[in-house]
Amino acid sequence: MTYRALSPHPNPPPQGGRALNFNKISPSPLAGEGWGGGWRLVRITLLLLLLALPAGAAEPLDGFDGYVEKAMAEWETPGLSVAIVRDGKVAMVKGYGFRTLGGGALVDPATVFATGSISKTFTAAAVAALIAQDRMRWDDRVIDHLPGFRLFDPYVTREIRIRDLLSHRSGLPPAEMLWYYSPFDRREILRRLQYLEPESGFRSGFGYQNLMFVAAGEAVAAAAGMSWDSFVAATFFRPLGMSDTSTSVAAIGGNTATPHARIDGEIQPIAWLNVDNIAPAGGINSSAADLAKWMQFELADGADGEEALLRPVDVAEMRTPQTVIRVPAARREAFPHTLFRAYGLGWYVEDYRGRRIAYHSGRIDGMSSRLTLVPEQRLGIAILTNRGRSSLPDALTYRLLDAYLGAEPHDWSGALLKRGMDPYEQREEDRRTLLAQRIAGTQPTLPSARYAGLYESRLYGPLDVAFDGKALTLTRGAEVLARLSHFHYDTFFADFVNPALRDRLARFEIDHHGRVSALELEYEGRFDAAAPPLPNGLAPPGETDAASGKLLGIWSGRWNGVQPHSLVVERIENGVASVVYAWGPAPVWGVDEGGWQREQAPVKDNTLTAAMPGGGTATYSLQPNGTLFGQYRDGGRRRQSSMRRAP
Predict the structure, then answer these.
(1) Residues 400 and 525 grouped into a single domain
(2) Residue 614 placed within a domain
(3) Confidence check: pLDDT of 592 > 70
(4) How far apart are CA 392 and CA 402, in angstroms?
């Protein structure tokens, strides 16, 4: 074990006192009695003093590699990377484990991970950069930068400020399904916020809200005259030399970690989640090497060498509590050295062992991360991992904080696991609690296939139910979000594929005609049946050419996952189909009402070609899996749809 060298005493001795001069030490009275003289006594005395120093006097990273490997096994994490900055210099940047489960390429300092909500620190800094350029202020009204911005409450629309967007006090619920696997871009997400009803009073308390950071990103874009993505790249990534860092999954490749999640009890690789539509809240991808540069910049109060990109007063404002966060008893027990907790502007702010820290964690499908600053100690710690829903970044962060702050070593990994801080275990407990509420012995009103169909919410947009002949699933586009199983009566249990989303109940409403009229999804609300209008008296499937018989029936889908449409193939004779094409509204494309039309459509090799209302044509081709693939073309416009046959 190595020890730090003792520093000279920083203060002169008190008046009348005498400083110890190691060059003028008299021989020990024990000299000649087996101690080897006065110098030996001094050396022994110093050794005893060093051994008596607290554990924090050891090098902070002593034993850390072994601890990381042990903790990775406990948290079933294939790979991670660590960056530590101290006194303006990089003290450590290192990779551990593998990019993908099962071996192969190793994680190194340049391996790219999803940082998740660490992205919020960049969005807040982007606002600070615009303030330094006199193009924005913390207390600007949002509508002064985004005139079309609308919330459910007109008063809040008028009064909400940039500061409110960055401090989680809008009073709005999370509404994660507005962006998660949705077809909406940032502009459309913001347009739909006018339908999101608040769950608490404006500025009345803390309520985590990703969508407000999307609004902040769009406000940055408006003030900067370029996209948020371009602004953060030009202002931070390139000047700081963050060459591994990007704002889109389209930019990743090469030295990149694979996300992992626990599926059916096993840790498995999963695909990267595209979160470009909420990138200002959680879409930045980066490496440990690059985050070391970001921490150096932050700890230098927004300066890059001699060039100040931010004003120190604005850096301080970002780390100043704006919204108090109530600390529940369980968290106080888990973190007894933290007495207060709050949210600043893009940063959590709390105390730890008497020091003020600013941090942000990040969790996105298959990735977990954390970045922590201790400004008084000029210390920064970043942890990136390729396992989702994990508290391992917290455990390693607190292990390092204790080491650098001179505290006794503590097994944070074991402690957090023991306290049930593994979100997967918590999800299983929540599931058991929910299933215990089931009323046994009930049956659904309709056969399973009758619940399948298209559903729509004016806030969340499309959410469809598919039936594969065996089970029902909740879908968005080609993505299966949840598996549905009967719970009781017309209520089904929604088992979400992504463990980050809470399991919930889905209740179907049956109208007086015995048809499903709506789907009520717990936490999200009502989704109305969205099948396009069809004419009365549709002809039952009639004569058909033998080779094209599988095209007969009613098919439903959505163009580009947005606009509902149906194709009714009534009969096929001599290579010509009698069809009804029906469409529903799509406000995002300026289509406010639905309608239908009849026509004759040529058929060849199980592909049908139909003229579309308003111009253009659509081809529908039967696929080996029994679906119908539609492609719409009208000049430069292209749309696609995967359609299922109605039971």
Answers:
(1) no
(2) yes
(3) yes
(4) 15
